[in-house]
Structure formats: C-alpha cells, structure tokens
Specification:
By secondary structure, the protein is an alpha+beta fold. It has six domains: 61 residues, Helix hairpin bin (Helix Hairpins); 235 residues, D-amino Acid Aminotransferase, Chain A, domain 1 (2-Layer Sandwich); 107 residues, OB fold (Dihydrolipoamide Acetyltransferase, E2P), CATH 2.40.50; 70 residues, DNA polymerase, domain 1 (Orthogonal Bundle); 71 residues, 5' to 3' exonuclease, C-terminal subdomain (DNA polymerase, domain 1, Orthogonal Bundle), CATH 1.10.150.20; 68 residues, Rossmann fold, CATH 3.40.50. 37% of the residues lie in helices and 21% in strands. The chain is built from 25 helices and 24 strands. Strands 14, 15, 16, 17, 18, 19 and 20 form a seven-stranded antiparallel beta sheet that branches. The chain has a five-stranded mixed beta sheet with strand order 2-13-10-3-9. A four-stranded antiparallel beta sheet has the order 5-4-7-8. It starts with a helix and ends with a helix. It binds 2-(butylsulfanyl)adenosine.
Length: 671
C-alpha cells in the first residue's frame, strides 16, 4: 500500500475503532460482532507497526484498551517519593501554617502561594520517558506503588504522548502526579447501572474510582467514567527546577496536554488563601466532582527547596480540610471489640444514617474515659461526623435517654469473648484482655499476619479465620502451616478446590521478604515503615531478634516506645515459641545484607551524567543500603553526587552548603 493511502486508512481505523469502543464500553450497545472488531484492530496494529513514525498515538485505540487481564499487580518504585500533605482543620490552623513558614524563612514579608481544590480521588504517578507514557502507579506506601499502567491507559484524559506545545521542553524522564476521580453525575449513572445489573452500588465517587483503578482486567476499567487532574511533578531528568514557580509548572503541565483544574489561583498572602477556602466551601456544592478541602502551596520553587519536608509531608504545603460532615442519629447499643493487642474498644451501634453519601451505623467510642467525658448513654441522640477516611466519630450527645442510670455503659469486667478478667494498666486509657489465648486476639493476630502488607496469603478471609480459631484448629499464626486437608474440609464454604488453593497459597508464602515477615508479626508500633527500616538495617531475622534497645535507639526513626515494644516482643516466651514453630514449618524470610556505612536515612541527590553506572542503578544501590534519593536539593539533602555536566542542582547544593561528592567518593561512602 502506498504510504499516503496507508496513513489515511490508519486514521479511518482509529476513528472506527474509537467509535465502536464507545458503543461497546460506554453505551453497552455494540454495533458489530467481536470478530469484526478484532479484525479492525488487527489491521490497525499491523499498519501502525509499519508506519510507527507517522501516527498520533494519543488518538489510537491500540494504545488504550485490549490488554489481557493481569494475575496481580506488580510493584513500581517511585523515582521520587510521593509525599502526603499535612492538614489544617480550621482557619486558625491555616494562619499558623503561614506563621511557621515565615518563621522558618526568617521573614515578616507576605509569602506568595498557589491555592487549589483538594480533589477527593486517588493519587497516581505517571512516568513518561521521552514524552511517552511508560508506566503508571498508585501511591502505595509513598515509596513503592502498584503498577496500574494498563488501567490508567484507558483514561482518555491521560496523554499517552506529551505535547510539545508551549515553551517547556519535555525532559527525558519525568514523573507527573495527579488525582484520578469520577465526576458526581457519572458516579450516579454508574451506580444506577450497577443496581440495575444486580451489583452493589459504590459508597461514594472516591471508592468507585479506587475500585475501578484496581481492576486486574483493564476492559472493566475502560467502562468506568474515570478522569484526572494533574497538580505536581516528581522526579525529572534533566532536572527542571527550571520552573521558577509552581504556577509555571501548572502552565507547563497544561501545555504538555495534562488536564489541570481550572479553579487553581495565585494568592499573594495567607488572607487570600483563606478567602479562597471560604469561597470553595460554597462553590463545592456546584462542582461536578467531589473535593474535600483546598490545598495551599508555596509558589516559589526556591523557597520550597529551602523548606524541604518533615517526615512524609512537605513543609511548603498544607491541605485545608473542610469541616467534617455531620448528622444526627440514635445510639441503639454499645458493643465491645477485642483487638489484636487485647485492647477493648467500645463501638456505638447506631440507627443507620447517611452522611456525605455514605450510610453510617457504627462509630468508635475509643475508651471508657471518652464515653464518660462525652457523657454518652445507650439511647442517646447524638451528632456523628465523618471526615474523609476517618472512622465515624460521635461529636456530642444532644438528647439523653430518660432512664439514664439503667442505660449508662461501663466496660465489662470480663472479656466478652473469652471471659478472662479485664485489666486497666496504670497510665493507660485502654482496658485490656490479657489472655494471650483469647480467640478474639488470635483471630486479629492471624488476620494481620496474612494481610497484604504481611505474608499476603490469598484465600484466608476473616470468616474462615474465625471459624478455625473458634474450633481450636489454629491458635497462633504458625498453626496455619500445619493445616491439613482434613482440618479444612467440613469448614463452611471449604470445598476441595478452595482447600487445595489455600494450602498452596500457604506453601507459596514461605519465603517472604524480611520486612513483610517482620510486619506480619504484629509487633506494637511496628508498621510497614518501621519493618522496612529494621529489615534494611539488620538484614537477617536473627539480627532483628537479638537487637538491643540501645542499638535500636541508634536508628533515626526509632524512639524509646518502638524500641521497647520490639525487644519486649522478642523476649516474650510465647512469641519465641511461635517463631520457632514458624521456622520448623519452613518459613524462611528472604534476607539481605546489612546496610553499612552511613547510608541509612541519608538523602542523596544525583545530578549530571554518572560514568560508572546508570542513575537507576545508583538509586537502587543507595536504597538497598538504606538511603533515599530525592530529585531536588534542599537543606535536608546529605550529599549531592555530581557526574559530568551537572545541572542547576549543583549550584543549589553550593548555595545551601550541601556536600558535593563525585562518583569515586560516593563508592567509598557506600562501601
Ligand atoms: S499535591 C506533596 N495537590 O491529597 C504534595 N495533592 O493528602 C502532594 N490531592 O496524595 C500532592 N488534591 O492524592 C496535591 N491539588 C492537590 C491535591 C492533592 C488532592 C491528594 C493527593 C495527595 C493527598 C495528600
């Protein structure tokens, strides 16, 4: 075929397939058979391959849907961490943020900000290589996310190729960050369709977006009305701190073809930010998507770099949350939950009430002190509030029941699950069941052990764990590895296939990464972050188990409370017994090498071309030794590693007096 004719046919096929996609995915009303559709698609793929240089991949349906379903999501490390925002819940807290910024900058002058809506969706990271979308991932733990590339490609608002309009050159490698959401109308339509089709409706647009993004079959995602707004960038190479302000970056994003929210605005001082916040409280009602606050960001890139980040949030930005949405209802009863550590939590069981689109019927009452302080009784009429993801909470009672004495509530003296005595330790607000064999604790412990962040064992839901612990088949996590087909048959919903699948998942889980194994043990205060640090610092399970409090305290992120809970855990005979049992069952965490030298907790910035290894390799090396790599230089940077023809980061390092080292020196430090 002549080239001109071929290109024309490509354009025609792109149009046709896009048209049929719409009929199939959006209107559920296909006009042609799957066979005919596949035929068109095959012809297009063949022609596009032949004339690759001539096509607009943004328009091409071959790039968006059609990939085979995945077995599970892979993980993708972010090149620069995805931070979260600290929150302000009132105007006073917004003013304090501005004061803090001025104090840190040692100035009385007004600071210029950019204000944006805080979109209530799912944060994602898009990685572009030479302007082409290479991968897309969820935020995950901020360092590593889930690979949802296929799903993100189905979102038409996400450019597959960045546009080179405007004045900003496209970097070789750049991470773009934004929020995927479903608009309110589209959400209502989706739920109507789900109900009509016999599926349960999503609780709110955010859940619908999250559920749609986490589909293993991208053809399902393609049917969901997902959209995106972009608001930040992560790593970029060459470094484009070339954008002197955040405002310029947002313009750059728009030039590159990313949707940028149109309610963004520049503010010359904090008063203007507050005015915007008040305005958005009203405007929120008429926006076609949900927002849960506004975000204030310092405009100047230089000032941002100077301020850097604390823990996992930048010092240069704050989320101003809207006041929680409230509703009034009645407490019908108070139940007791026994947690993994034996803590008894009173939970109010309420007459179901709708708050911001979600039916709420349970609210935590935290502990007895809280119940007394708020003077809560069964039968009371109460104001309940929901704020974002937070578990619903009772704000106050507005009408007390008539028989106050009869209906007041006291945490019981014996555990509602095992009947053992309940104690309240000095200085603690919590009541605890101290029977380590309490089935409630066993169940919670095992649920935590098998969770995704832990041993990640499929096929072991809470119901099954309850059944097994109630029947005494398992009493600690190690027992799972001694289960036989005999133990499992006879349990509810455990047919031959489920039983074999479960036993095989257990078998497959025997060599977890060390950090996941540590997390799975459920040591108090030892979540995924601390588990990772421990695995990195100590490399082997034996080292972690024998670490002294003093050694633990030498680690930046570990304070006395965490150190003591770790050593206490590994001193407790019943825990040691479980560890021994796990070992005997063949559980062997994959161990690494000890992070040596001073890389643990050290932050590196790489600039220029490195000769000895690629940037990615250097990044891997630093991270494997416990350090982090950041894309911009701040006063928190420990070292800037400069290769040949370094960029503006070098100047910035000099200005901020951050040590600059070459590759040789870097290798020396890395040992
Ligand atoms: S900036 C460090 N801008 O809120 C800067 N985030 O609580 C991080 N979000 O993880 C992102 N709207 O998923 C930024 N206009 C906006 C946002 C926004 C919503 C989300 C985002 C982030 C979370 C932080």
């Amino acid at each position: 075929m002549e080239e001109k004719t071929a290109i024309k046919r490509i354009e025609e096929l792109q149009y046709l397939i896009n048209y049929h996609n719409k009929r199939y995915y959006q209107s559920d009303d296909p006009e042609i058979s799957d066979f005919e559709y596949d035929h068109l698609m095959r012809e297009l793929v063949a022609l596009e391959n032949q004339y690759a240089g001539h096509i607009d991949i943004n328009a091409s349906p071959t790039q968006r849907v059609g990939a085979a379903p995945l077995e599970k999501f892979d993980s993708i490390p972010h090149l620069s961490p995805m931070l979260s925002l600290s929150n302000a819940f009132s105007e006073e807290e917004i003013v304090s943020f501005d004061k803090r910024v001025k104090r840190l900058l040692d100035t009385q002058d007004d600071v210029s900000y950019v204000v944006e809506p805080k979109l209530d969706g799912i944060g994602v990271n898009l990685l572009y290589e030479k302007g082409i979308l290479k991968s897309g991932s969820t935020r995950g733990d901020g360092a590593v996310g889930e690979d949802i590339t296929q799903n993100l490609k189905t979102i038409h608002a996400i450019p597959l190729r960045m546009k080179s309009a405007g004045t900003s050159p496209i970097p070789d490698l750049i991470e773009i960050r934004g929020e995927v959401y479903i608009g309110t109308d589209a959400f209502k339509r989706l739920n109507r369709e789900r109900i009509a089709g016999g599926d349960s409706p999503f609780a709110n647009p955010r859940n619908a977006a999250a559920g749609s993004l986490r589909q293993l079959d991208s053809r399902i995602t393609a049917k969901r009305p997902l959209d995106i707004f972009c608001y930040a960038m992560g790593f970029a190479d060459p470094d484009i701190s070339g954008f002197p302000t955040h405002w310029d970056l947002l313009q750059g994003l728009a030039d590159w073809g990313f949707p940028v929210n149109r309610h963004i605005r520049r503010a010359d001082n904090i008063e203007e930010c507050i005015a915007y916040y008040r305005e958005m409280i009203v405007r929120r009602e008429t926006l076609p998507y949900e927002i849960d606050g506004t975000v204030i960001k310092i405009d100047s890139t230089d000032i941002r770099d100077r301020l850097g980040a604390v823990s996992r949030s930048p010092r240069w930005a704050i989320a101003c949350k809207f006041a929680a949405t409230q509703a009034t209802t009645i407490i019908e009863d108070i139940a007791i939950q026994v947690g993994r550590t034996g803590v008894l939590t009173p939970v109010a069981l309420m007459k179901p009430v709708r708050i911001a689109g979600v039916m709420v019927s349970r609210a935590t009452l935290h502990n007895q002190d809280e119940i007394d302080r708020k003077n809560i009784h069964i039968g009371d009429t109460v104001i309940v509030q929901r704020a974002g993801d937070v578990i619903p909470e009772i704000v106050k009672t507005v009408g007390t029941s008539e028989h106050e004495d009869e209906r007041s509530f006291q945490i019981p003296e014996t555990c509602p699950v095992c009947g053992s005595a309940i104690v309240r330790l000095e200085g603690e607000s919590a009541h605890r069941c101290i029977n380590l064999d309490c089935p409630a604790q066993i169940k919670e412990n095992i649920t935590h052990f098998v969770s995704r962040g832990g041993m990640d064992i499929d096929g072991l839901g809470e119901k099954l764990i309850s059944q097994m612990s109630e029947r005494g088949i398992i009493s600690d996590p190690a027992d799972l590895y001694y289960l036989t087909e005999n133990d499992l048959t006879g349990l509810e919903r455990m047919g031959g296939l489920s039983t074999r699948n479960l036993l095989s998942s257990l078998e497959k889980s025997k060599t977890p990464p060390l950090e996941k194994f540590i997390f799975s043990l459920g040591i108090r205060h030892t979540g995924e972050h601390i588990s990772k640090i421990l695995a990195c610092r100590f490399a082997t399970l034996d080292n972690v188990m024998s670490a002294s409090e003093e050694t633990l305290l030498s680690i930046k992120e570990i304070g006395p409370e965490i150190a003591s809970s770790i050593t206490t855990f590994f001193r407790e005979p019943s825990n040691l017994q479980t560890m021994e049992k796990l070992k005997k069952a063949g559980i062997k965490p994959v161990e690494g090498h000890v992070a040596s030298g001073g890389l643990l907790g050290k932050t590196f910035v790489l600039t220029g071309t490195l000769e000895k290894f690629s940037r990615n390799r250097a990044k891997e090396l630093i991270e494997s030794l416990g350090g982090n790599v950041s894309s911009s230089v701040t006063k928190n940077t420990d070292y800037v590693v400069a290769g040949t023809s370094p960029g503006s980061k070098l100047d910035k390092a000099r200005r901020l007096e951050v040590p600059v080292i070459d590759e040789e020196k870097f290798l020396e430090i890395a040992g």
